């Protein structure tokens, strides 16, 4: 049942809620040491041969609403030992290095062919063994129409079912003999085919990727077989994994009448109806050279040699298609969608707000807010000690948590974005969760301190550095950045942008996108505690 602004939905009977919850912010007692306690500390220090000043024993009255680090660095004691920079081998960012290690990260080389195909390589000197190669196509479910929705995902399935040069069995045996990994995935804006192989098998991987993209057979027998596979996959995904179902409902309703609201798998009627001619038309429209980026990372010492191989293998690609339709404009609509199933044990829900596109100054502040909201599962211990105040509130009682699991998400697209939280909660705790999430988002616009920002900053840097240790993740970053930004964002630039985020940037982004803004919510399960849109909307501006 879909509820737009100003509409009311029939509610079920609301059972009485007997459990009580504490406020997100709790008061703490300030303990001031007595004179006798101070004297005891001085005597203990004298016995150990150290003065109280040298031991730096300080007692401070902390603000109850201000998060503080558990360990305060001692900046006055002279440094003894080997500097941290000299101990590290590889990318590292810290106050001592001042980006010197990240600045040494190899430069990405990008070449454009006459056909419009873009080729990028990033040689990693410390990787002598493996290569990751990806073909990124600027086409996904948002480029489809209502009639051919599901074609991009359908083609992904058929890519490995045989070509004009290789049968399905030959393709599988060849990849297995190489000891590599060949796969593909489809998103709302991109389709990616990639391979991971040893360095000596780079040419073979290029040949296989070019063959499945340029010479896919698309025989009727394979189409019929994959049709049933996709239908079974759709049934399994929507029945077992509620997360994808919720996000499909969320996109369908907040992007109503927009291409971005179409699902990746496509509707059942389309899957049953799509034929070979539909797939060939989609290939001729979007599988063109000017719509692709080929990226290789790992042991690629000779950029020109790799470019020449790509030019030779992908020479059969059409340069462009003048009849390619323009990208559909997306707009956000505040709404609520609920699908009530009282026989389910939990409510699966997602709350989202309209945010910015990839190329926007608020992209990095939103990344900070996503980290501050965090994610957690009750199966993991220690939620009540998490640095996220939102996580601590939800799991303050480990035996009775408010949410079974939750995660914050920040999903930017080329022209719009979504920011919010997804959760699995007990039906009687439903209202506690969305009220707590809303209050925490309001807090970003009023009550954010520098200690929280520094903590999140270090976590973001650690995540970025860990991603730089995986050639496949580097390949995906480069391919996405070239399609979205038209260039590779060097790690030094990314670290600089993370360092530029301060308290004011967080507050401005929160007021611009979250506070007093329309929201979209989708929920499936026993939703008898589902809120009225107008009631919940009225608390979106308060400084809790």
Count of extended strands: 13
By secondary-structure content and strand pairing, the structural class works out as: alpha+beta
Q: What shape does the CA trace take?
A: globular
- Helical stretch count? 20
Average pLDDT: 82
Most strands sheet: 7 strands, mixed
Strand content: 15-25%
The neighbouring-strand order within the major sheet is: 1-8-13-9-12-11-10
Low-confidence stretches: 1-34, 47-75, 77-98
Radius of gyration using CA atoms only = 27 Å
Termini separation comes to 31 Å
Overall helicity:
25-40%
Task: Give a structural overview.
The chain is of the alpha+beta class. Helices cover 38% and strands 16% of the residues. The chain is built from 20 helices and 13 strands. It has a seven-stranded mixed β-sheet, with helices on both faces. A six-stranded mixed β-sheet has the order 2-3-7-4-6-5, with helices on both faces. Helix 13 crosses helix 16 and helix 16 packs antiparallel against helix 18.
How would you summarize this macromolecular structure in one to three sentences?
By secondary structure, the chain is α+β, with helices and mostly antiparallel strands.
List the helices and strands and how they pair.
Elements: E1 2-4, H1 35-47, H2 52-55, H3 84-87, H4 100-103, E2 109-112, E3 118-123, E4 130-137, H5 151-158, H6 168-178, E5 181-186, E6 191-198, H7 202-214, H8 220-240, H9 242-254, H10 268-273, H11 276-286, E7 292-298, H12 303-313, E8 335-340, E9 347-355, H13 363-373, E10 375-377, H14 389-394, E11 403-412, E12 417-425, H15 430-443, H16 450-467, H17 471-485, H18 491-500, H19 503-513, E13 519-525, H20 533-537
Parallel strand pairs: 3-7, 8-13
Antiparallel strand pairs: 1-8, 2-3, 4-6, 4-7, 5-6, 9-12, 9-13, 10-11, 11-12
